[in-house]
């Protein structure tokens, strides 16, 4: 039986990186829930050949290992820090190297990090159209995380954790044969709300 894989890519060079911390948290949640193997990398892991590459074949072997894992993964988590109102340039350059059909049908959890709430729509206005071009299946819930929601480089906000868990749960229709049963959440009856 082939192992289920979830690849996470953070479009950041920073170390430590809030974008990478967010991707790692999402991949860990998804790997635990669906019994998958996670593979996380960022721009720094792709090395200097990325900047000169015009095609995937121009990348050095180490960079190709990561991008091959991304292309072959059963599901993706991608995040970028917001830079001047959009994803980073090298984040976009990575996807410029892909043929349009390489991500077709692949479920993708879209995420971003930024200094404040004013950048939250980057997922809807920048990332979602990019992955629509590739005909990937972007999950309904995107996860934007502001700097204040991290403490010591770790995602620390309860509401953000809940949103991330909801987004990861949306992988289920794509990965359900591999899903680990989760206890059903108890919902209050309609009468209890009054």
Describe the structure.
With about 190 residues, this protein is α/β, with parallel strands linked by helices. The strands form two sheets. Strands 1, 2, 3, 4, 5 and 6 form a six-stranded parallel beta sheet that branches. A two-stranded antiparallel sheet has the order 7-8. Strand 1, helix 1 and strand 2 form a beta-alpha-beta unit. Helix 1 crosses helix 7.
Radius of gyration (CA) equals 17 Å
What is the string of helix and strand elements?
EHEHHHEHEHEEEEHH
- Which stretches of 5+ consecutive residues score pLDDT under 50? 179-194
Number of β-strand runs: 8
Estimated helix fraction? 25-40%
The gross shape turns out to be globular
Distance between the termini: 50 Å
Strand-residue proportion: 15-25%
Average residue pLDDT: 89
Keywords:
six-stranded parallel sheet, two-stranded antiparallel ribbon, alpha/beta, disordered C terminus
What is this entry, summarized?
It contains eight helices and eight strands, in the order βαβαααβαβαββββαα.
Blueprint of the fold:
Blueprint: E1 5-10, H1 18-34, E2 37-42, H2 43-46, H3 49-52, H4 61-72, E3 75-81, H5 89-96, E4 107-114, H6 122-133, E5 137-138, E6 143-146, E7 150-151, E8 154-155, H7 158-169, H8 172-175
Parallel strand pairs: 1-2, 1-3, 3-4, 4-5, 4-6
Antiparallel strand pairs: 7-8
Helix pairs in contact: 1-7
